[in-house]
Amino acid sequence: MAPCIVFVANAEKSNVISVRNEAMRAAQDKGFECFAYDSNSSLSSLSEKDVLFIAAFGGDGTILKSVRLAVAIGVPILGINLGRVGFLSEIKPSEFSSFLQKFKDCKYHIEERMMLSCQIKENSFSCLNEVLLYKGSFPGIARISVSINGADAGTIPCDGIVISTPTGATGYAISAGGPIVAPGLDVVILAPICPHSLATRPIVAPASSSVELKIHSKGRLYTDGQQVLEIMPNECIRVTMADTKAKFLRTETRNLYNLIKQKLF
Q1: 3-class DSSP state of 104
Q2: Domains and CATH numbers, the chain
Q3: pLDDT (tens digit, 9 = 90+) per residue, 214-241?
Q4: Long-range contacts of the stretch 168-173 (C-beta < 8 A, 24+)
Q5: What pTM value is reported for the model?
Q6: What confidence tens digit (pLDDT) does each residue in 243-255 have?
Q7: 158: part of which helix (H) or strand (E)?
Q8: What is the largest CA-CA distance in the chain?
Q9: Is 60 considered catalytic here?
Q10: Catalytic residue chosen out of the listed positions 60, 152, 224, 243
């Protein structure tokens, strides 16, 4: 059985499929088996394959969707940036062939990122970037009660609250006034969205914290940008650090601060 690379692509972006197909040909030329995973594929289709890693072609959104697949089969992700920001990406499409040679020569390392687990009733979700609890209707504001490790952290009038990992700190959380988190720190960030209070500020808690949220009206729950549930008043949402971590293939040490200057300024 030849070692296999699983290719995931954002088919909604122009030219992504042709870029992916070119990369698959390059991988086949180097002796790798290639599998194009799309919306019609299932985990069972990979059960007989010796998967090495997932090559995700697109922006950060494509990589976030690929994380669930990567965690499920226990392999790392290589992000190939075809989006605008690309915080999670490692290379450009033109660098894919040279990366394959580095991979064969073991000139890479694996970077692990903490994930969050979100539980509500019998439902459980995992995510890499953030959990978002948002108000259920556009007019007006929500009131969201927060507790951390059982301690009351207040009830916040706001549009919503983002609970973020360090990876998600440069996503929605930073737009909500959250901090930049230095590499190597495992923490949980709570950032209110448009709080109707001058005294409300983001909270940084240990990664081991158990965070509970209750919204006093109907709301919506999102994980990594995907809506997963409508929330009823006073339902308890519990967010903790997940048991699993996302793994990324890297060929060099990343300077987060330079990335921020390049991507966000």
Answers
A1: helix
A2: 3-107 (3.40.50.10330), 115-244 (2.60.200.30)
A3: 999 999 999 998 878 999 999 999 999 9
A4: 168/128, 168/129, 168/130, 170/87, 170/259, 170/260, 170/263, 170/264, 171/60, 171/87, 171/129, 171/130, 172/129, 172/130, 172/132, 173/130, 173/202
A5: 0.90
A6: 999 999 999 887 8
A7: strand 151-158
A8: 61
A9: yes
A10: 60
